[in-house]
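Journal club prep — side note

Before the paper discussion, L.F. wants everyone to see what a predicted structure for a comparable chain looks like in token form. Sequence:
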Amino acid sequence: MKFEASIDINVPVDTAVALFNDPSRYKDWQSGFVSYETISGKPRTAGAVSIVKYINGRHKIELTETIRVMNPPAEITGLYEHKHGSNTMINIFTALPGNATRYTTGVGDMKTKGFLPGLMAFLMPGMMKKRNQEWLEHFKAFAEKAYQNKV
């Protein structure tokens, strides 16, 4: 599965990248976010490995994030592994005229483990894309508010 989505944000590119790259702010725009803990490497650098936890309804989700590329704003890419599969998320921030930023994100590849996760991915391919779009919209609202309030 591969997909891409983008949104234009009314903040300078450096601000957008700084807000995106700050795990202490994930709770402000990632629904269900619980915690982020770096377990090896220098936090938020290429090669760093972290555990990211979410709650989705009654389900606790624990992902292992390995940062593959940390070259903002051009690219921030991470591998996210879960007991049911893995995916690579690519994030690109592009400066636009008028102190705005285009945030583009997508899944470079996705692999599932087991019959049920594979079946769900096949039957509901839009579920991950929909959640990704929600997070883009939440990030836009968060970043614009934070920039206005200089938070």
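L.F.'s comment for the group: The chain has a mean pLDDT of 88. Keep this in mind when we get to the figures.
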